[in-house]
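seq as requested:
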Amino acid sequence: MSDAKSILVVEDEAMIGMMLEDYLDALGYRLHAVAATVDDACVQARQGGFDGALLDCNLQGEKSWPVADILVEKGIPFVFATGGMADDLPPAHADRPTLAKPFTIGAVERALGRILPG
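struct tokens:
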């Protein structure tokens, strides 16, 4: 499946990261990497090499908006993963698609389908 689209997962909870990895595999995507901190995610975003990203809004108490800004600059589509009202998106990203926790494989499939053609 070398033509599978690769996804950067930005998630600080290891169990959720592993679940998303399983979902991606089952849906025919490739995991690019899992980044658990804003700093690591920013490095991954700057390096690129992936087709899309699932971006948790809150990483260890720090908002992931700087990661989103880099993804926008690089033209890489992404979906925000949000756990609730505390994750109000900043105005610059208010139109971005969101994926509500807890995730289901169907919801992940629909969210990625909105940002990645084919």
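The chain is about 40% helix and 25% strand.
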